[in-house]
Amino acid sequence: GFMTRHERKIFDDLKSPHLKYWVPFVWFGNLASKARNEGRIQDSVDLQTLMNEMNKYRSWCSLLFGYDWVGIPLVYTQVVTLAVYTFFFACLIGRQFLDTDQGYQGHDLDLYIPIFTLLQFFFYAGWLKV
């Protein structure tokens, strides 16, 4: 009910790889300029006020389009990245082997490279990048 059948056909025939939210704004701008030239809008200040309000609404629509364009909020990826790296550094400190000079039973072998912690980190970091 907002468009005539002819306008709907033009809108549907318009090829665009993105959303076409901007087309009615162009139509509105052209009609407002035509109305000013024909004398339907008496003052240029009125036309400017109309166009400013239309541009404000158009910027809100483009902001909404921007939110639709980015699938995952950036905060989510930042929080997950921070969690993965914090977990890795906590594991590096928390999974240290006991000092072999103290003579603890069953802890004779001391590995210098935490192989399983590194494998776990590579798994999580790879999963994060995906």
How are the elements arranged and paired?
Layout: H1 5-13, H2 23-38, H3 44-69, H4 74-94, H5 115-129
Helix pairs in contact: 2-3, 4-5
Structure at a glance:
The chain is built from five helices and no strands.
Helix content: 55-70%
Beta-strand percentage range: under 5%
* H/E element order: HHHHH
- Uncertain residue ranges: none
Largest sheet: none
Number of domains: 2
Total number of helical segments? Answer: 5
What gap, in angstroms, lies between the N and C termini? 45 Å
**Radius of gyration from the CA trace?**
31 Å
Total E-strand runs: 0
What spatial form do the alpha-carbon principal axes imply?
rod-shaped
Content-based structural category: mainly alpha
Mean pLDDT comes to 84
Quaternary status: single chain
Labels describing this entry:
ion channel; mainly alpha; chloride channel activity; 67% helix; 2 domains; transmembrane helix; single chain; Bestrophin homolog; Bestrophin; 130 residues
Describe this structure in words.
It is a multi-pass membrane protein. The chain crosses the membrane at residues 82-98, 110-127. Belongs to the anion channel-forming bestrophin (TC 1.A.46) family. Calcium-sensitive chloride channel subfamily. It comes from Alectura lathami (Australian brush turkey). It catalyses: chloride(in) = chloride(out). The structure is a single chain. The chain is an all-alpha fold and 130 residues long. It folds into two domains: 5-69, no CATH class; 74-129, no CATH class. It is built from five helices and no strands. The chain has helices spanning 5-13, 23-38, 44-69, 74-94, 115-129. The chain is rod-shaped, with a radius of gyration of 31 Å. It starts with a helix and ends with a helix. The mean pLDDT is 84.
